[in-house]
Design a protein that fits this description.
By secondary structure, the protein is α/β, with parallel strands linked by helices. It has one domain: 3-Layer(aba) Sandwich (Rossmann fold), CATH 3.40.50.720. Helices cover about 40% and strands about 15% of the residues. It has a seven-stranded parallel β-sheet, sandwiched between helices. α2 links the parallel β2 and β3. Bound molecules: nicotinamide-adenine-dinucleotide (NAD) and uridine-5'-diphosphate-4-deoxy-4-fluoro-alpha-D-galactose (UFG).
Length: about 350
């Protein structure tokens, strides 16, 4: 696609962590942005910050992706060229406790969205999938054709959506669909004005570390140091959220070329241990991160990192930012907003 072609993009979940960074990249690339979000896990303040960063405006629709009437109205009132679908629930532990809510929002919500897109003849979709669809893989790095096998309701909801979208494309090859399997998104926009703002106690490593650094939490629990890894702690492929968002822009260009369905890992290809992440954050922040080693967390893989070559080859995308930069950007956001968007 010509890089300068202006499009109108619907961003579901656009007020959230990844979605808000996506909105910045879309606006800066000259696109028109419509956000649909029910704010169940985010704040409208993120969208105000997006507008300040870009000096451009976007349209915000408060609502639920499961609301078919609302979706029909949104598609009737706007000529939408493509949908970036971030809206969903993402906490693994919660998905075990409330599986039906997860299937309802993640699977049923996506089916409602596809129905509205079909009715409006909008057939370009980028779906936020996750490396969680690989379950606990036996070989590293993880390639797109590594066997899938999710091990919790969250992961299964992602896998079910992927399968539904593959079947949809099979039945109607005029669809243009990208399934993007994110590894571990971290980092924040360089302005320090948007970033990850967990509602409760963070489930994920990087926001927990940064809350310890800023004094909101006493210490980090390191979930196990007896894995078969160089220092015994879990190894992950952390990817800067801005790199991740730029991968979506590349996916839109790829889909513009021809109807297709593409599955892509979005990762850096580098694995870092929990202890390495702690050291990198200490270096970036100048703070000491207190931690204690506790038992392993159920369901955690020892090691997970991507083979990102397919995205490099076919999307012409590669992650640019290293772990030091990810930590610097998280710290800038956390320092400026110790209590997230409620500051
Ligand atoms: P997030 O919770 O910050 O963003 C999701 C957004 O969707 C929130 O703004 C929330 O209010 C909104 N939302 C939830 N249910 C909705 C509904 N029914 N209708 C409308 N809006 C709704 O999460 P995120 O980290 O930005 O993740 C975005 C997507 O990427 C999710 O689909 C997630 O599963 C996927 N993903 C995230 C990660 C990660 O580690 N952050 C990893 C892999 C995949
Ligand atoms: N960890 C700790 N202490 C914490 C949090 C995490 O030691 O307080 C460790 C974990 O054991 C793991 C590593 O830090 O070794 C990373 O854990 P995260 O929770 O940050 O990330 P995960 O890889 O476990 O999970 C992420 C997403 C999930 C997704 C999964 C696979 O959060 O939604 O990747 O894609 F399912």
């Amino acid at each position: 696609m010509p890089q300068d072609k202006i499009k109108t993009i619907l961003v579901t979940g656009g007020a959230g962590y990844i979605g808000s960074h996506m909105c910045v990249e879309l606006l800066q690339a000259g696109h028109n942005v419509l956000v649909l979000d029910d704010l169940s896990n985010s704040s409208e303040k993120s969208l105000q910050a997006v507008e300040r960063i870009t000096q451009k405006s976007l349209s915000f629709i408060l609502g639920d992706i499961r609301d078919s009437e609302l979706l029909a109205r949104v598609f009737a009132e706007n000529k939408i060229d493509a949908v970036l679908h971030f809206a969903g629930l993402k906490a693994v532990g919660e998905s075990v406790a409330e599986p039906i809510r997860y299937y309802d929002v993640n699977l049923n919500g996506t089916l409602k969205l596809i129905e509205a897109m079909t009715n409006a003849d909008c057939k370009t979709l980028v779906f936020s999938s996750s490396a969680t669809v690989y379950g606990i893989p036996e070989t590293m790095p993880i390639e797109e054709n590594t066997a899938t096998g999710a091990i919790n309701p969250y992961g299964r909801s992602k896998l079910m959506v992927e399968q539904a979208l593959m079947d949809l494309h099979e039945s109607d090859p005029s669809w243009r669909i990208a399934l993007l399997r994110y590894f571990n998104p971290v980092g924040a926009h360089a302005s320090g004005e948007i970033g990850e703002d967990p509602n409760d106690v963070p489930n994920n490593l990087m926001p927990f570390i940064s809350q310890v650094a800023v004094g909101r939490r006493e210490k980090l629990s390191v979930f196990g140091d007896d894995y078969d890894t160089p220092d015994g702690t879990g190894v992950r492929d952390y990817i800067h959220v801005v790199d991740l968002a730029r991968g979506h822009l590349k996916a839109l260009q790829y889909l513009d070329e021809a109807p297709t369905l593409g599955v892509f890992n979005l990762g850096t290809g580098n694995g870092y241990s929990v202890l390495e992440a702690i050291k990198a954050f200490e270096a970036a922040s100048g703070k000491t991160i207190a931690y204690e080693v506790v038992d392993r967390r159920a369901g955690d893989a020892a090691v997970s990192f991507a083979d990102p070559q397919k995205a490099q080859r076919e999307l012409d995308w590669r992650a640019e930012y290293d772990l030091a930069r990810m930590c610097e950007d998280v710290w800038r956001w956390q320092k400026k907003h110790p209590n997230g968007f409620s500051d």
